[in-house]
């Protein structure tokens, strides 16, 4: 249902989320972020361009990392969100709690700025 | 037009539920953004029931019904055996607390209440029925 790929690019960890994240698959997103954090990544970019659907279980995963990332000075930026996915974030007012950018280069730029 | 879908309480079945609702709404020419929101609300309701009322036991059944009584109105019913989880009585934690407590719950109920116009519960012949109404 969901496929997650991790790669390194431009000094950042990129987590590409492909497919749908619901209560049965949110654990995969959780594990991928935990792995990047555990391996000491300071910049995590989440590629949502192939994310077709996210429910509160997936949103909860992002929320649950906000404090830990702040404490460890890790910057996480989401990019490439489809309109229907952005809408889910907006209903909850989460768009203001997370860093979201249009594309990868803007996301990396923001992560670099926030890292200074 | 009426639609019905029966499914066991396994989280792996959520995708089937979403596809069923999506197809029914597309057949009735509901705009895509509305379809996405309604699919999300029903996914949240069903996963809540599966997890909290049925402990993901695939032998427990949920029955989903969609009724379209007038041009703009859609009624969704989720029928199960006697669960008593009423989200109208659930007070969602504040967003700040969700971040601080690293809680992963509460967001779904907030979504359902934002998306649906009405959420009602009733008991009928030993069954619990949750009725969600949405005017497009």
Q: Would you write up a description of this structure?
A:
Chain A is of the alpha/beta class and 116 residues long. Chain A has one domain: Transcription Regulator spoIIAA, CATH 3.30.750.24. Chain A has helices at 26-38, 56-71, 83-91, 104-115, and strands at 2-9, 12-21, 43-54, 75-79, 99-101. In chain A, helix 1 (26-38) runs parallel beside helix 2. Chain A starts with a strand and ends with a helix. The mean pLDDT of chain A is 95. Helices cover 38% and strands 30% of the residues of chain B. A five-stranded antiparallel beta sheet of chain B has the order 1-2-3-5-4, covered by helices on one side. Chain B has helices spanning 14-27, 32-53, 95-100, 107-115; strands at residues 2-8, 61-70, 73-80, 118-124, 127-135. The longest helix of chain B is centred in the N-terminal third of the chain and has 22 residues, at 32-53. With 136 residues, chain B is an alpha+beta fold. Chains A and B meet through helix 2 and helix 3 of A and helix 1, helix 2, helix 3 and helix 4 of B.
User: Which assembly state applies to the chains in this document?
Assistant: heterodimer
Number of strands of chain A: 5
Q: What is the mean predicted local confidence, pLDDT of chain B?
A: 90
Largest interface: A-B, 25 and 30 residues
Reported for the largest beta sheet of chain B, the result is:
5 strands, antiparallel
Q: CA-to-CA gap between the ends of chain A?
A: 37 Å
Strands side by side in the biggest sheet of chain B: 1-2-3-5-4
Structural class of chain A: alpha/beta
Can you count the helices of chain A? 4
Radius of gyration of chain A: 13 Å
Q: Report the order of strands and helices of chain B.
A: EHHEEHHEE
Q: How does the overall form of chain B come out from the CA principal axes? A: globular
Draw up the topology in text.
The complex is a heterodimer of chains A (116) and B (136).
Chain A: E1 2-9, E2 12-21, H1 26-38, E3 43-54, H2 56-71, E4 75-79, H3 83-91, E5 99-101, H4 104-115
Parallel strand pairs in A: 2-3, 3-4, 4-5
Antiparallel strand pairs in A: 1-2
Chain B: E1 2-8, H1 14-27, H2 32-53, E2 61-70, E3 73-80, H3 95-100, H4 107-115, E4 118-124, E5 127-135
């Amino acid at each position: 249902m969901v496929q997650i790929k991790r790669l390194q690019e431009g000094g950042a960890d990129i987590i590409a989320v492909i497919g749908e994240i619901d209560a049965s698959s949110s654990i995969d997103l959780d594990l991928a972020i935990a792995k990047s954090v555990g391996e000491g990544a300071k910049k995590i970019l989440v590629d949502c361009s192939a994310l077709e659907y996210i429910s509160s279980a997936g949103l909860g995963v992002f929320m649950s990392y906000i404090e830990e990332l702040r404490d460890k000075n890790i910057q996480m930026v989401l990019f490439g969100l489809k309109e229907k996915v952005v809408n889910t974030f907006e209903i909850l007012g989460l768009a203001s709690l997370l860093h979201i950018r249009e594309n990868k280069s803007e996301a990396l730029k923001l992560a670099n700025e926030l890292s200074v | 037009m009426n639609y019905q879908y029966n499914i066991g309480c396994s989280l792996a079945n959520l995708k089937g539920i979403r596809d069923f609702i999506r197809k029914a709404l597309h057949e009735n020419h509901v705009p895509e953004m509305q379809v996405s929101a309604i699919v999300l609300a029903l996914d949240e309701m069903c996963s809540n029931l599966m997890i909290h009322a049925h402990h993901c036991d695939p032998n427990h059944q949920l029955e989903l019904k969609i009724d379209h009584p007038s041009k703009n109105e859609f009624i969704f019913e989720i029928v199960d055996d006697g669960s008593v989880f009423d989200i109208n009585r659930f007070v969602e934690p504040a967003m700040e607390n969700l971040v601080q407590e690293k809680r992963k719950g509460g967001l779904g109920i907030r979504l359902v209440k934002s998306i649906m116009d009405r959420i009602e519960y009733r008991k009928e012949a030993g069954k619990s029925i949750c009725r969600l109404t949405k005017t497009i």
